[in-house]
Every structure is written in structure tokens, then in C-alpha cells.
Specification:
The complex is a heterodimer. By secondary structure, chain A is an alpha/beta fold. Helix content of chain A is 40%, strand content 9%. Among the domains of chain A are: 228-250 and 487-630, Response regulator (Rossmann fold, 3-Layer(aba) Sandwich), CATH 3.40.50; 259-474, Glycerol uptake facilitator protein (Up-down Bundle), CATH 1.20.1080. Chain A has helices at 2-9, 38-41, 82-90, 92-96, 137-149, 173-177, 255-283, 288-314, 320-328, 334-358, 374-397, 402-416, 425-432, 445-466, 470-474, 505-516, 536-544, 559-562, 598-618, and strands at residues 17-23, 118-121, 129-131, 228-229, 247-253, 484-490, 493-499, 521-527, 565-571, 584-588. In chain A, strands 4-8-7-9-10 form a 5-stranded mixed β-sheet, with helices on one face. The longest helix of chain A is centred in the middle third of the chain and has 29 residues, at 255-283. By secondary structure, chain B is of the alpha/beta class. Among the domains of chain B are: 98-179, no CATH class; 204-331, no CATH class. Helices cover 23% and strands 11% of the residues of chain B. In chain B, strand 2 (90-92) and strand 3 form a beta hairpin. In chain B, helix 3 runs antiparallel to helix 4 (154-160). Residues 1-8, 14-25 and 333-337 of chain B have low confidence and may be disordered. The chains are: A alpha/beta, B alpha/beta. Chains A and B meet through helix 1, strand 1, helix 3, strand 2 and strand 3 of A and helix 1, strand 1, helix 2, helix 3 and helix 4 of B. Strand 2 (118-121) of chain A pairs antiparallel with strand 8 of chain B.
């Protein structure tokens, strides 16, 4: 939210954009307001299709008949038809005749759900305004249909009840009759054009470890139960992928790229500082003022260029004091900061060598240039303090001006500090190995570095107080840069079997799957709270049919592997299953074998065996081997 | 200063509105001045859960319904009072502690009052299926929610299904009665106080994610009640509602659109995904690049759906605010990209 809203707010699009921010449903949280009745709330049944009587054109002609929709009753994959079951749960009369007329006494699609938040963020938003106009998600559709599908300036129907106004194009009775919620806006004067938006705090908690799954099936919509585990039944199941039809997106860390950008950028910075110093010294005929002028101008100009060049990749810190400050403000993790700082020091040393090679100097030479004394140390403190203040202050309000502000500041600081403003520990160390105009005696380095860190950290501490949302901008220091990037990979076709402990049902299912599947297909099994070992009774009954699970160990699945899933099979989570567009979800209602008698566990095993075979038959997708056709009949012994 | 100005002007606005008796507040001007609409739909929070305490935020421009103003506590705010927000009925002491009157009965007959919760991780995924959402709205007669919804089953249902009653519970054990305020979701509170907010905006059906999101995309769920269906249906490249989808309608009317996703696009229920991918499904960084005016990208479409990371491919990056993720991840949505 924060970055999306801020990006729009600070862009050229802000003048004519409406951001509508809301929630899909209440998530089981209390609300005190009654969902309105149909007549009051413009919430008629949209299309005459009743609960559990799914109808669409994805599977014609059967889908057109009530109760024969693609999911509702012709679902090859799911053992239980969840939608019909839910309808029958609330409406027992429906269970008697699922294809007949929907009982009038039962709840239908003619009422809104629980109230959810809705905020309109736009220059047209009436400021600090609470609308009481009744709406729902189809109000968003009605607004889109009005703005983009009716002639400009024409009279239109904002309340869904104006018979004189021409109707906007619509899909069903719901969006036809929905209020457009236009009263939240003033399109004549953009009253909120100059309203600023804040910055969200960074996420501070990882809720993953406390994730719990109810031991009883509920009706919530849980997401894929937490960390999952991988287990391989045989080497062949991880053989060469022989069909890479499916494309998936997944996110990849850009840390290596960012670190290399810091390395190259710092090297360039040091090469510019030392190189321009050598050139200035050679051309100035001993006039130190002229030499320093040239040196400072060249450094400032180079800074603009390399910050612009690398800022979008790593943020262009090029300075351990900046990276450590950013880490303390929450922008970098400790690990990232360590890589950044190492890359900066190493890059600086390479930069020294580059400058020397260009000017035919020895690759490294210890500097004899003394820089010490309280005045110089204090200068470094002031220089670094000012640098960090410029960075924090400018990155808040004028992020795209940061390269120019930093370069301008450094150029000026060359002249107003007694030390010519190193303000950078990595550059300071690199300059110790250059016995040229820009050098610094090695024994003077520690004092400089300490003063630089002191100044930068003092500025960071001050700005944390001045700007309480400092953490919100820390990740975008000095310039916005991605920390992850989207890549497209082709992978093996992967089925994920998920239950709670990954010590029984999902283990058995994955084992059976991998037994029958072709190379190029794999099963991964998963548990929200992985147990220490596979249940002994499960190991025992699987051993009876020649499958050894004694060495299988519930482990956690990395996101890398989870992101390969093509099909998710959930067991024992009942209706608490995820909303997964693009990913096929199958729910198997199976009892937990833990602690049960061997006979009961055998029954569960055989049930899973049959389901896996049917899954492979029905959804072959190149995964089912010849074995499946001649699969041995497994019976309880 | 701005807020004080608003407060000062409000009585006059209310008075002016009262003069225009009978007219509901309409838009001023022509909505066609808007050239871009961006829809961000997060997951799983009720109005009271997030904005029930909006009127109690320090410096809030809003107030709760007031009896003396003729506000009806059951019916909410006076229709023409746009600084009134229909939230929870609470007292707040000097230390910021809440005492609220809104309550649900527990199964032992005790009363669970709405309480302020500073735990940003909600441990269970509370019950919001079709059948049990109706029971949350009317515990004894869930098929009669249309006629009466006492909103009396939240504690009873979740104690049975998603947050099992441990026998003896303390006042903050039933997290369905929890609400957040400016301490937990400062970014949203800031937006809601500066821009315009609606306190009569409802989910389209008393049910879970898919039917409700389907209304956003197709204005119907064409019979579907659950989220554990096949998405998309086998072999068809997406559901094809008889009345079409907003995507179809936009294309028919030459409206440009995109569905920006992090793990999977919500439009994947209606258009081919993962393969072949509908060209309107774009990774979120493309949106940020278009907003930044990158010349390498096509221009920002007229209608954008910006989807959160729904946690489909693992919950470690989930930022849709669906319990049990940290709700602040949603506020920071895409900061991590």
C-alpha cells in the first residue's frame, strides 16, 4: 500500500487518478453493522444463479444446467464438491435435491456480506469525508463503467435508480444497480491535490512461527498451510524434467547484483577522487588551491554520474558509514550491510589501483600525506554528519534530487572543512594506499574513520527523531532500488501434498505419487507444524506394501521449492483452503492416522493410494506412467 | 491546521447540505475527469476491525454517532453528517485504554466485549466460510440473515472452529472481537483521516474470498460459495461467467487494463494462468515502472488492479493482511520488491 500509494502520489499520474482501497471480506472479524436487506442496499441476486448451482460457460453445455457447473458437480479432481457441501450445510433442504429449484427459505445471493474498510485516495477525494452511501465491490465496477464507458459530460445514474439517465454498460443486476459512490469525490476542484501521504513502517514481525491450524475442520479460508517439507521417494522422481511447458514467476533476491554495484561504484568513486587529484596536481604547477578546486569539481561531477548510474541497482551508498546508518534505520539487514561494507572497502582499494595504473604510478604506494589534529578530526565528524543529514533529509522529500544534493554537498565540503571532507571510511582507507595529492597517511586513517562513523550515526540519530517515519524511507536509500526481482523459470511439474504434521497423510500421498509418476513430475509433502518423525504406525503400514518411510524426515520446504507447485492437495484442512487463482487446489477429507489402530491406518493408506492413482489418471499432464494402468491392488492384510 | 479548518467549516457544510433536503450527496463535477482508476483489494478485515476506532484517534476529524445530533445508534450516522463515522461505541481513558460496549455472547453465557489488540499477528485464520459467516451474522437463524442480523455469532462460531475455546478464556482470547487503531495501522489511519472513507461499504456476499473477489471481477460468483475450488477450472483457461467479466467488458469498450500481481493475479480465475499467460497479467514492478514514467514500458492503463502477495507460493512474502501475516506488511506492500 505505502509504496504503491506513494509512487502514485509522487508521479505525474496523481492529477487524474483514483485509488480505491478495500478488503475482499471480513476474515471472520466482528463488525456491528447489519448487512442491508436487498431493497435497502441494491443487492439483488445478480443473475438468478443460486448458491451451489454453479453455471458458467467454461464447460458447456453441461455447465449451463443448474448444479452442473465446472466446479459444482463435474469436478474430476476434488473428492468432495465443496460448494455444494457448503450450500447444503446451511440449507438442508438443498441437500435433498441439489439440482431442483433453490429453496426460497434459504440464504441466497440477495444480501451483502459483512462491512469492510473502503478508502478513496485521489486528488478528487473530499478531504476528511465519511460517505454513508451503501456500496460493495460492484460499486467499483459501476464507477469504472461510468467513467470509462459512458460519454463525457452525459447525465448518468450515480445511485443505480435514476430512470431518466442512460444506464452505464454492466454485467449483472448487481453492478447495474450499484451506487457509484461518487459522493466521495469532487471532480470540479481537486480538493485533495496537495494532500501529502505518509510512509508505512517496515514490517516488524514475522507471524509465520505462530501460525496454527485448527485441529477441527472449519469454514475459514486459510492459505496454504505454512512451511512445507520436501521428501523424495526415489531418485527417478527427481530425474531430468522432460516437459517444461509451465511457466511460473518467482521472486529472486538481487543481493549479488546490488553488492557488485556497490563494488564497482565505489571503485569508480575512488578512481575519480585519486585520478583527478593526480591530474590536478600535475597541471596546477604547485598551486594547491587550483588543484583542490579541480579535484573537488571532478569528484562532485563524478558522484552525480555514478549515483545516477548505480542508484537504481544498489541505492548507491558507496560508503560504509551510509550503509551502517541505513542498517540501523532498518533499511538493510545485518547480512546485507556486511556485504555492502565489504564490497565498498574492496572496491575502494581496486579504485586506487585503477587510478594509479591510468597515471603510470605504482599500483599501491603508502601515502605520506599527514592529516591529523583535532580540527581535522572534527572536520570529518562535521562532514559525515552533514552528508548523512543531506541524504536523510533529501531522500524523504526529493528522492530524485539526492544524487545532485550529495554531489553538491561533497563539492562544498571539500572547501568548508579543514580535512577536505573525506566523509567515507572506504574512500579513506583506499586513499591511504595512494601517495598522491589525495592520499592520507595510514596512521591517520583510524581517527578519520571513527570521526566519520560518529558524524554519520549522530545525524541518523537526530533524523530518527526529526522524521519518525525514517524507517519507511531507509529501504530506498539513497535512491529507490529493488531488493528483489521477478524472474520467469520453467520447472518440473510439481504436486504439493499438505497436512499439519507432515508425518502421516501427506507423507503417504507423496510416496504413492512418486511411485507412479513419470520422471519430470515430483511430489512435495508439507506440514504446518512438522513433527519430529513420521508416525510409527504410518511407517509400519507402508512397510507392509514395500515402501520404506523410516528414513523420511519432516523438514521445511524452502519458498524456492514451494513456488514450483502446479497442484496443491490439502488434507484435513476442510474448507480452510486457500484462494489460489492459477494454482489448482484439491481438498481431500481424510482422518489423521496419528495414534490410530493399525487397521484404521491401513484404511487411510488405501484410501490415499486410490486417490493418488485417480489423481494421476484424471490429471495426467504427462505425469502418469504405464505403471498406473497396472498398479498392484493394495489391500489391507 | 487543515483539520481545524475542516472542523470549523463543517457546521456550515452540514447546514448547506440540510438545505438541499432530500438529495443524497452527489459527485460534484464530471467523473470523466478521472483518467486512471487503481483498485487495491487486500484480504480479510472487517470495518470495525480496522476503522472501528477511527473516531478515537488523537486529532481525528471524525466523531462517532451522537444521540443528541439525532444519530441513531443502530442505523449509524445522520446521512448528511460526513464527519460522523459509524464505528465501535467505546470510552477511551487518558492512557488510551478502550472500554467498548459492542459485544458477543460466549458459549458459557459470558459476554466478550470488543477490545483493542496490539498483537499484529492474528494467530488463527478466523472463520469466514459461507455457512459460518451467515451464523456469525445470525447465530440461531442463519438462513434469515436477510431479515435480521444481530451480528451475534462471531465468538460462538470461532470458538467452535478456528480459535477453539480453551475453557477459561481471558478478555482478549477471542480475537474476532479485536480491533486495531493508529498504533498498529498508522498508514491506513492517516489515509482514512485525510481522504474520503465509506462506512456503509460491504463485502458482496456473506462468505469467503473467491465469491467476494468474483463479484469484483464478474459482479457475480455464478453459484460458487467456497475458495477451495479449482482455479482455473481444469482445461478451460478460466471460468467463463455467462454474463461475462469486467475484463471482457473493458476490452469491448476499448478500456485499457492490467492486473498487476506479486505471486499470482486474481484475474487468473477468469483468464489463462500460469500458461499461457494473458498479456494483461503483469508483475508488480512493471506497474512501478509505468508510474515512474519509464519510456521502455507501455503507458499506465486506465484501470489497474494491484494485487497483494496472496501467499499462494509460500507465506513468507505474503502481504495481503490475511491472518496470520503481520498486518503491517500490507501497509508496506511492495516495499520489499
Amino acid at each position: 500500500m505505502s509504496q504503491v500509494v506513494n509512487a502514485v502520489r509522487n508521479s505525474k499520474f496523481w492529477n487524474d487518478t483514483i485509488i480505491l482501497f478495500t478488503y475482499d471480506e471480513h476474515g471472520g472479524f466482528y463488525d456491528h453493522v447489519q448487512p442491508p436487506r436487498a431493497r435497502q442496499g441494491h443487492a439483488p441476486n445478480p443473475d438468478g444463479i443460486s448458491p451451489g448451482q454453479c453455471a458458467d460457460l467454461s464447460n458447456p453445455p453441461t455447465s449451463l444446467q443448474p448444479g452442473k457447473g465446472a466446479e459444482c458437480s463435474s469436478n474430476l479432481l476434488s473428492a468432495t464438491d465443496t460448494t455444494t457441501k457448503d450450500a447444503a450445510d446451511l440449507c438442508p433442504q438443498f441437500a435433498l435435491d441439489p439440482t431442483g429449484p433453490f429453496p426460497a427459505a434459504c440464504a441466497n445471493f440477495d444480501q451483502y456480506g459483512i462491512r469492510v474498510p473502503f478508502v478513496a485516495i485521489s486528488p478528487f477525494s473530499k478531504p476528511s469525508y465519511v460517505s454513508h452511501t451503501v456500496g460493495d465491490h460492484t460499486s467499483i465496477l459501476a464507477l469504472i463503467e461510468t467513467i470509462f464507458m459512458t460519454p463525457a459530460g452525459a447525465k448518468h445514474d450515480d445511485q443505480g435508480d435514476d430512470e431518466d439517465a442512460p444506464a452505464h454498460p454492466h454485467l449483472t443486476k448487481r453492478d447495474q444497480n450499484a451506487n457509484t459512490l461518487e459522493d466521495m469525490f469532487n471532480f470540479t476542484t481537486s480538493t485533495s491535490l496537495n494532500t501529502k501521504v505518509g510512509v508505512a513502517l517496515p514490517p516488524a514481525q514475522d507471524c509465520t512461527p505462530v501460525r496454527q491450524v485448527s485441529p477441527l475442520p472449519g469454514n475459514g479460508s486459510g492459505l496454504m498451510p505454512g512451511p512445507i517439507l520436501v521428501w523424495k521417494v526415489s531418485a527417478t522422481s527427481f530425474g531430468m524434467a522432460n516437459h517444461n511447458r509451465d511457466i511460473i514467476y518467482h521472486m529472486k533476491s538481487t543481493l549479488p547484483r546490488r553488492v557488485i554495484a556497490e563494488f564497482v561504484g565505489t571503485a569508480f568513486l575512488v578512481a575519480a577522487v585519486i585520478g583527478s587529484g593526480v591530474m590536478a596536481e600535475r597541471l596546477s604547477a604547485g598551486n594547491v588551491a587550483i588543484a583542490l578546486l579541480a579535484n573537488s569539481i571532478a569528484t562532485g561531477a563524478a558522484l552525480v554520474a555514478i549515483i545516477l548510474a548505480f542508484g537504481g541497482i544498489s541505492g548507491a551508498h558507496f560508503n560504509p558509514a551510509v550503509s551502517i546508518s541505513d542498517m540501523l534505520a532498518g533499511g538493510l539487514s545485518r547480512g546485507e550491510a556486511a556485504f555492502y561494507v565489504a564490497a565498498q572497502f574492496f572496491g575502494g582499494l581496486i579504485g586506487t589501483a585503477v587510478a594509479h595504473l591510468m597515471f603510470s604510478e605504482p599500483v599501491y604506494s603508502l601515502s605520506q600525506h599527514p592529516r591529523h589534529g583535532v580540527g581535522q578530526l572534527f572536520s570529518e565528524f562535521v562532514a559525515a554528519f552533514g552528508l548523512m543529514a543531506v541524504i536523510w533529509g533529501c531522500s524523504r522529500s526529493r528522492a530524485n534530487m539526492v544524487p545532485f544534493a550529495v554531489a553538491a554537498y561533497i563539492t562544498a565540503a571539500y572547501w568548508f572543512t579543514a580535512s577536505t571532507s573525506f566523509a567515507n571510511p572506504a574512500v579513506t582507507l583506499a586513499r591511504a594506499f595512494s601517495n598522491t595529492f589525495a592520499g592520507i597517511r595510514f596512521q591517520d586513517v583510524p581517527g578519520f574513520v571513527a570521526a566519520q562513523f560518529g558524524g554519520a550515526l549522530a545525524a541518523t540519530a537526530l533524523f530518527r527523531w526529526l522524521l519518525p517515519n525514517l524507517a519507511g524511507q531507509a529501504e530506498n536509500l539513497l535512491m529507490p532500488h529493488p531488493t528483489e526481482t521477478t524472474e520467469i523459470n520453467t520447472k518440473m511439474r510439481t504436486y504439493v501434498f499438505a497436512c499439519v504434521h507432515n508425518a502421516g497423510r501427506s507423507q503417504m500421498a507423496a510416496a504413492f505419487f512418486n511411485l507412479y509418476a513419470q520422471p519430470g513430475c515430483q511430489a512435495i509433502s508439507a506440514g504446518t507444524e512438522p513433527a519430529g518423525q513420521v508416525h510409527p504406525e504410518v511407517v509400519a503400514v507402508m512397510k507392509e506394501i514395500g515402501i520404506d518411510l523410516s528414513t523420511a524426515k519432516p523438514q521445511r520446504l524452502t519458498e524456492e521449492v514451494a513456488s514450483n507447485a502446479h497442484v496443491l492437495v490439502t488434507m484435513g484442512c476442510g474448507e480452510a483452503c486457500p484462494f489460489v487463482p492459477g494454482l489448482r487446489v484439491i481438498d481431500w477429507s481424510l482422518p489423521d492416522p496419528k495414534g490410530k489402530a493399525l487397521d484404521a491406518v491401513r484404511k487411510i493408506r488405501d484410501e490415499i493410494h486410490e486417490r493418488v492413482k485417480n489423481l494421476l489418471k484424471d490429471d495426467c499432464a504427462g505425469c502418469c506412467s504405464d505403471l498406473i494402468k497396472s498398479a498392484p491392488q493394495v489391500t489391507s492384510s | 491546521m487543515r483539520r481545524f479548518g475542516i472542523r470549523f467549516a463543517l457546521p456550515f457544510l452540514v447546514f448547506a447540505a440540510a438545505l438541499l433536503a432530500g438529495t443524497t450527496a452527489r459527485a460534484e463535477g464530471d467523473p470523466h475527469k478521472a483518467k486512471h482508476v487503481i483498485v487495491i483489494m487486500q484480504e480479510n478485515h472487517s470495518f470495525d476491525n480496522y476503522f472501528g476506532a477511527l473516531a478515537y484517534a488523537p486529532g481525528s476529524p471524525y466523531h462517532n454517532p451522537r444521540r443528541e445530533d439525532g444519530d441513531d445508534h443502530n442505523g449509524g450516522c445522520r446521512k448528511d453528517d460526513h464527519s460522523c463515522v459509524d464505528g465501535l461505541s467505546c470510552r477511551v481513558d487518558a492512557a488510551g485504554n478502550f472500554t467498548c460496549r459492542n459485544a458477543n455472547k460466549d458459549d458459557d453465557g459470558s459476554t466478550v466485549f470488543a477490545f483493542h489488540d496490539s498483537r499484529r499477528c492474528v494467530a488463527p485464520d478466523l472463520d469466514h466460510g459461507w455457512a459460518n459467516t451467515h451464523r456469525e451474522a445470525n447465530f440461531n437463524h442463519p438462513n434469515d440473515t436477510l431479515f435480521q442480523s444481530l451480528m451475534d455469532g462471531f465468538v460462538l462460531i470461532n470458538d467452535k472452529t478456528e480459535q477453539l475455546d480453551k475453557g477459561v478464556e481471558n478478555a482478549t482470547d477471542d480475537q474476532t472481537m479485536a480491533f486495531y487503531n493508529q498504533n498498529e495501522i498508522p498508514f491506513y489511519y492517516d489515509l482514512a483521516q485525510k481522504f474520503s472513507v465509506n462506512d456503509r461499504y460491504f463485502a458482496p456476499v456473506l462468505g469467503p474470498t473467491f465469491p467476494n473477489r468474483s463479484y469484483l471481477m464478474a459482479a457475480t460468483s455464478f453459484g460458487h460459495l467456497t475458495t477451495s475450488d479449482n482455479f482455473p477450472p481444469p482445461g478451460s483457461g478460466g471460468y467463463k461467467p455467462i454474463t461475462g467479466t469486467i475484463f471482457d467488458l473493458m476490452e469491448k469498450n476499448a478500456v485499457t487494463w492490467a492486473d498487476y500481481f506479486q505471486d499470482v493475479p486474481q484475474g487468473g480465475s477468469f483468464r489463462p494462468f500460469p500458461a499461457p499467460i494473458d498479456p494483461h497479467f503483469l508483475p508488480l514492478p512493471v506497474f512501478l515502472g509505468q508510474i515512474a514514467g519509464s519510456p521502455a514500458l507501455p503507458p499506465l492503463p486506465q484501470v489497474s488492479f494491484v494485487d497483494p502477495n496472496l501467499g499462494v507460493l509460500g507465506i513468507t512474502k505474503e502481504n495481503d493482511e490475511h491472518p496470520p501475516t503481520d498486518i503491517q506488511r500490507g501497509q508496506a506492500l511492495c516495499r520489499r520488491l
